[in-house]
Amino acid sequence: MRIKERIIILPNGKEITLKSAGAEDAMKVKLHREATAKETHFMAREPEDGPFNLERIQEGLASFAESDRNFMVNAYLDDELVGDLGVSVVRPLVKYLHRGNLGMSIRQEYTDMGLGSFMMKTALEQAKENGFEQVELGVYSDNLGARHMYTKMGFAEYGMNPRAFKLKDGTYVDEIIMVNFLDTY
Ligand SMILES: CC(C)(COP(=O)(O)OP(=O)(O)OC[C@H]1O[C@@H](n2cnc3c(N)ncnc32)[C@H](O)[C@@H]1OP(=O)(O)O)[C@@H](O)C(=O)NCCC(=O)NCCS
């Protein structure tokens, strides 16, 4: 499904539109994911993992748009995509349908201005409307800004996957596992 459009004005005066990317936006999403993968070590892919596959992104976006539960929240500055968030069922099996998995990224230039919190609030409200009872995510332990924002938005840390990530310099980073029970949304 696609979310209802919303507008947020950032503290720098820029107007951001939140809407759901569809298959037609695959190239924008690809460029966004390539850029955010380089900006921090907090995203999954490294350049060595190979390029993002445009067709796969297209298929993924089409499937999100057609789903009655899964959805995207994307942030556009004019025509440029600066934020990407997706919520999808953890596993498409009856026992798992109450659980949504969330991933998100924002271009560095647009972080720390409240955009992530606004995207998250939109996503949590939509998740509840779509029948999810809880939203879950994993975050690098050294991603203190993200952990702060997730906690502020109602997530609690319930677990840790030790040494989940090995960076190119050989250091390990733990993954913190968080959940947000949607009773309050
Ligand atoms: C994580 C991310 C989505 C957060 O979005 P955002 O737009 O920066 O979030 P907001 O501006 O709404 O909130 C950030 C909060 O973290 C705080 N913060 C920033 N850096 C911090 C730090 N090092 N330690 C503690 N808090 C920090 C800010 O002060 C702000 O808090 P406040 O709302 O109480 O004032 C965004 O920074 C991002 O995409 N980063 C790169 C990719 C990434 O890390 N993705 C997440 C993978 S799990």
Write the layout of secondary structure elements.
Elements: E1 6-9, E2 15-19, H1 26-39, H2 54-66, E3 71-77, E4 80-89, E5 99-106, H3 115-129, E6 134-140, H4 144-152, E7 156-166, E8 172-181
Parallel strand pairs: 5-6
Antiparallel strand pairs: 1-2, 2-3, 3-4, 4-5, 6-8, 7-8
Helix pairs in contact: 1-2
Bound molecules: coenzyme A.
Structure characterization notes:
By secondary structure, this protein is of the alpha+beta class. The chain has one domain: 3-Layer(aba) Sandwich (Aminopeptidase). It contains four helices and eight strands, in the order ββααβββαβαββ. It has an eight-stranded mixed sheet, sandwiched between helices. Strand 7 and strand 8 form a beta hairpin. Helix 1 crosses helix 2. It is globular and about 40 Å long. The model has no long low-confidence stretch (mean pLDDT 97). The chain binds coenzyme A. Coenzyme A binds next to strand 5, helix 3 and helix 4. Coenzyme A (COA) binds next to strand 5, helix 3 and helix 4.
Structural class: alpha+beta
- Which strand order do you get reading across the main beta sheet? 1-2-3-4-5-6-8-7
Q: Tell me the CATH topology.
A: Aminopeptidase
Number of domains: 1
The proportion of strand residues reads: 25-35%
- CATH architectural type: 3-Layer(aba) Sandwich
Total helices: the number is 4
